[in-house]
Specification:
It is a single chain. This protein is an alpha+beta fold and 463 residues long. It folds into 3 domains: 191 residues, no CATH class; 137 residues, no CATH class; 101 residues, Immunoglobulin-like. It contains 16 helices and 15 strands. The strands form 5 sheets. A 4-stranded mixed sheet has the order 1-4-6-5, sandwiched between helices. Helix 4 runs antiparallel to helix 7 and helix 11 packs across helix 15. It is globular and about 90 Å long. It starts with a helix and ends with a strand.
Length: 463
């Protein structure tokens, strides 16, 4: 009995350790610097989603938007391209003591470019001066304290989501324990933007129906795992990047425009982000994330157009864990896969360009007489999810009436859909149309119907 009790206690202890609580916080350093860049009109810092917070920024802090400190922020952004993670990286290095902002003692301002190459000592020294000037003139600390209730709502909601993260997975996948000392910062100002930090992550928040901070697990959980994974994949990439240089340089020209839209510039950064996203998808797959396939397609749509092939190749990792206990053991295989993919990227591009499902057959045929028919059968090029949606007649011609659909039935294999008609609703000698909403008809791979297939026209004109 005693032995059984010890086993039960041990199991409970293991379960607690696997899902150890991670606590988030809002930090004055990040809100201060993010709001300064927002006041300067830097686009990525002008996406705060909380209406009341935006209103308070405008009311209390916008009067300072053309003062010397904020004008200097504009100069940093327009003349020196400082924005995005250049702000969060250095904000993490600051401390606020006795109303003064300064670098933490372990950092040397003369070495600032070593921490972030976008900065130099002269720029950062003046930046610190401007931060202190704005902090004092605007009475920013009062603004920060006055919003504690809002910050508490954000952190409480975030902590509920963080409690669901399986921290044990990081050891099983990377071979390294999860770092419980990582700091999880929330930025109310940052909206959809998130950044990996030296000792943690900075996560933006969106809003709920009441305009309060909202943690949407579909969006936020993968983002958090993404930033956590960077702490493991960055050193992994650094070790293996020389062997990935060939494939990086061959793949990058195909996706350069998409990567620029994501603020990923350069072949190395693209491959580094690909590797990190691959590991995030591995987490989602292994932990039973319900929208896993949607996330794969999301990465394809963002520009990592070989991601589905990558996840298919990862099945070899899972099938041979005896050979590959952790992802680093599998890296030689991943690099060989990348080289093959790079050498055959034209076929990847063809797959991407033809990723949308399309209609292969319609009975009764489009533009034919449907008098007496009780159903229309549509066959698709690949299995679908089983969702559907319609929008109008699909024609600008006012003489084309919208076809009345009584019900929708999918075949078991989801390759066909029956549109059940109501013949009594149709009139003779008329033209009818129906527009299939592309976003309503989604393939099992989570790509919407090809736009060229959406309009179907029939008639009741007997010849």
């Amino acid at each position: 009995m005693k032995k059984t009790l010890l086993i039960i206690v041990g199991m409970l202890f293991f379960n607690v350790q696997s899902y150890s609580q991670i606590i988030s916080k809002v930090d004055e350093r990040f809100e201060l610097t993010s709001i300064m860049f927002a006041l300067a009109g830097v686009p990525e810092y002008c996406e705060c989603a909380i209406p009341s917070y935006v209103e308070d920024i405008i009311t209390e802090l916008a009067p300072y938007e053309f003062t010397e400190p904020i004008n200097y922020i504009r100069e940093l952004n327009t003349m020196h391209a400082i924005g995005y993670n250049n702000v969060s990286t250095t904000a993490e290095m600051l401390e606020i003591k006795n109303g003064k902002i300064r670098l933490q003692p372990q950092f040397d301002i003369s070495q600032i470019s070593k921490y972030d190459s976008q900065w130099n000592e002269e720029l950062f020294a003046k930046y610190l001066k401007m931060i202190n000037q704005f902090y004092k003139e605007s009475n920013f600390h009062k603004f920060y304290k006055d919003h504690k209730e809002l910050y508490d709502i954000a952190t409480n909601r975030m902590n509920e989501l963080l409690a669901t993260i399986d921290t044990q997975w990081f050891y099983s996948f990377f071979g390294k324990e999860f770092d419980k000392e990582l700091d999880i910062y929330i930025s109310i100002t940052n909206g959809p933007s998130n950044y990996a930090l030296r000792n943690g992550i900075l996560v933006g928040v969106m809003k709920d129906g009441n305009g309060m901070p909202h943690v949407n697990s579909f969006l936020t959980l993968p983002t958090i795992i993404h930033e956590f994974c960077h702490h493991y994949t960055n050193p992994l990439f650094d070790r293996w990047s020389p062997q990935m240089e060939y494939s990086a340089n061959k793949i990058y020209p195909y996706v350069e425009d998409k990567m620029h839209q994501l603020a990923y510039s350069g072949a190395d950064v693209t491959l580094e982000e690909w590797l990190n996203n691959l590991c995030v998808l591995a987490y989602l797959k292994e932990t039973g994330y319900s929208s896993f396939n949607a996330r794969v397609s999301y990465q394809v749509a963002r520009g990592f157009i070989w991601m589905r092939r990558s996840m298919d190749f990862m099945e070899n990792f899972y099938a041979h864990r005896d050979l590959y206990p952790h992802i680093e053991d599998f890296m030689p295989q991943l690099i060989a896969f990348l080289n093959f993919t790079a050498d055959n990227f034209d076929s990847v591009l063809t797959e991407y360009q033809n990723r949308h499902p399309y209609i292969t057959n319609v009975y009764p045929a489009v533009n034919s007489d449907i008098t007496g028919f009780n159903e229309i059968i549509i066959t698709f090029s690949e299995p679908m999810l089983g969702a559907w949606g319609f929008y109008g007649s699909g024609s600008d011609d006012p003489n084309v009436k919208e076809l009345y659909i009584n019900a929708v039935e999918w075949s078991e294999d989801k390759l066909q859909v029956k549109l059940i008609l109501a013949p009594e609703e149709s009139e003779p000698n008329c033209t009818y149309g129906i527009q299939l909403l592309p976003e309503g008809f989604i393939s099992a791979k989570y790509f919407h119907l090809d736009n060229t297939c959406r309009n179907l026209i029939f008639n009741t004109i007997q010849k």
